[in-house]
Specification:
5-stranded parallel sheet, Rossmann fold, binds pyridoxal-5'-phosphate, globular, 15 strands, single chain, 466 residues, 6-stranded mixed sheet, alpha/beta
């Protein structure tokens, strides 16, 4: 399988190349040159596979020649063997129509583990084939950092430098990162905000003094391999609910549009999805874009669902590219306009294409709290604030009664205990596997909000690319 850039001028790469590259050199994002498709019979034959077997089947056409089918199955078996639930992503029924797909049984209690556990193994596999070293640099407001660190800790040929804004992540989130003492893990607390940390990371990707010496890689959802891994659980859930004979709707708590784009990919591959519901909190750029064609950046309002407090959704570009006839030059021009004015209008083709599969909704803090309470009082389930946005959107979406609606549960409620307790009076406890988090030693550098200090720290500790 070839991967092409959404902006049309970067060289095409194979799966291995796209996995190690992250962002394309023309500023675009890599997408497969075409969508692989399964027939209804092929999908029906997937029923009853284990999660690892299903994952290998779904990923095989994307991976192409980069891995044999046997090796791919070994990697999915290893990645998903680390989950605390045997079903990996168990499906729970809430009422006649509503279901939740629990994606938080990985090591760091958020859905990002599903993709990053696999990505960590892919990095190690591909780097092991040559003498290359990879330097991962990222910024996190919480969940991505811990999931990425867990996925690469102790692995050969990879160093990870994870920046977080000092004092602005929760104690659980910080300790999930800083108590990993593996020598290739470098946590850096930065004076300033998440946006300051993120800006330093972007600058480093474009700093020739750094990129000449180090192969700097990305672990956020601009990396195609992450999205590929997320396609699997759409198939897993739909198969359990009777696909391909029966259609299913999904409601997806959304920030960077990565998780819900994986649902779009599943639909392109032949999975019968009636609707993909894009659930935002009050940071609603995607809701405005899908409902009115208006993709314009507002200011971020902090909410109880911080992983969705985003005003620019990187992966939306992948959807616009596909709906706009895969015209890289047009996409480059559209994104250039957005970067200059922080606003753009969707074309008619993009709006109509999106309306065929997507609908969207925005959940305010009162509805979020009321939905957490509803799930507890009516179903005995504690859900986290991100999942609550999804479930609120699902319950108000007007999907026809015979069609099951699956909300993706993106974080364990114990990651956000205060919000859950405020709505239900119950404080969710951390699962036993992370229970001694508060007794472990922490390791973290503290640096000023100054790019040169951060670059010097990375240069001092990272392995050069060859
Ligand atoms: C990252 C995250 C999201 C948003 O996912 P995207 O792929 O960025 O849309 C939602 N919920 C939780 C808990 C997350 O960590």
């Amino acid at each position: 399988m070839d991967y092409i850039s959404t902006r049309g001028s970067a060289p095409a790469l194979d799966f291995e190349g796209a996995t190690l590259a992250g962002l394309a050199s023309d500023g675009g994002l890599y997408v497969p040159a075409e969508w692989p498709r399964f027939t209804a019979d092929e999908i029906a034959a997937m029923a009853g596979l284990s999660y690892a077997e299903l994952a290998a089947k779904i990923m095989a056409p994307f991976v192409g020649e980069s891995l044999t089918n046997e090796r791919l199955l070994e990697l999915t078996t290893e990645a998903y063997g680390r989950f605390a639930h045997k079903a990996v992503t168990p499906l729970k029924q809430l009422d006649e129509q509503q279901w939740v797909l629990e994606l938080f049984h990985g090591p760091t209690l958020a859905f990002k583990d599903v993709a990053l556990q696999m990505l960590g193994l892919l990095f190690e596999e591909f780097l092991g084939r040559s003498e290359r070293n990879l330097t991962i640099v990222g910024a996190t407001s919480g969940d991505t950092g811990s999931a990425a660190i867990d996925a690469v800790a102790g692995r050969a040929k990879v160093d990870i430098f994870m920046l977080h804004p000092e004092g602005r992540v929760s104690d659980v989130q910080r300790r999930q990162m800083t108590t990993v003492l593996a020598p290739n893990v470098y946590n850096i607390a930065i004076e300033g905000s998440f946006d300051d940390a993120q800006a330093m990371v972007k600058r480093m990707f474009n700093d020739a003094a750094m990129t000449d010496r180090f192969a700097i890689g990305a672990v956020n959802s601009i990396n195609w391999a992450r999205l590929m891994a997320q396609v699997v659980y759409y198939f897993s859930a739909a198969l359990q609910l009777g696909a391909p004979a029966r259609e299913v709707a999904f409601s997806v708590p959304t920030g960077n549009f990565g998780d819900v784009f994986a649902g779009y990919v599943a639909a392109q591959m032949g999975l019968p999805i009636t609707k993909l519901i894009v659930a935002t909190n009050v940071n609603d750029i995607l809701h405005r874009a899908l409902a009115h064609g208006d993709y314009s950046q507002g200011t971020v309002t902090p909410t109880a669902a911080p992983s969705m407090d985003i005003q620019v959704s990187s992966n939306f570009e992948r959807l616009l590219f596909d709906l706009g006839g895969r015209d890289g030059a047009a996409m480059a021009a559209q994104m250039k306009g957005f970067e200059a004015t922080r606003a753009m209008q969707l074309t008619n083709a993009q709006r109509e294409g999106a309306a065929a599969l997507f609908q969207s909704s925005r959940t305010d803090p009162d509805a979020m709290a009321a939905t957490i309470r509803w799930a507890w009082e009516n179903c005995g389930e504690l859900i986290d604030p991100h999942t609550a946005c999804g479930l609120h959107a699902a319950r108000t979406a007007g999907i026809a009664p015979g069609t099951p609606v699956v909300t993706l549960a993106t974080a364990h409620p114990a990651k956000f205990p205060d919000a859950v307790e405020r709505s239900t009076g119950h404080r969710p406890s951390l699962p036993a596997r992370v229970g001694d988090l508060f007794d472990r030693e922490e390791k973290c550098a503290h640096l000023p909000g100054d790019y040169d200090a951060v670059a010097a720290y990375v240069a001092q500790h990272a392995e050069p690319k060859i």
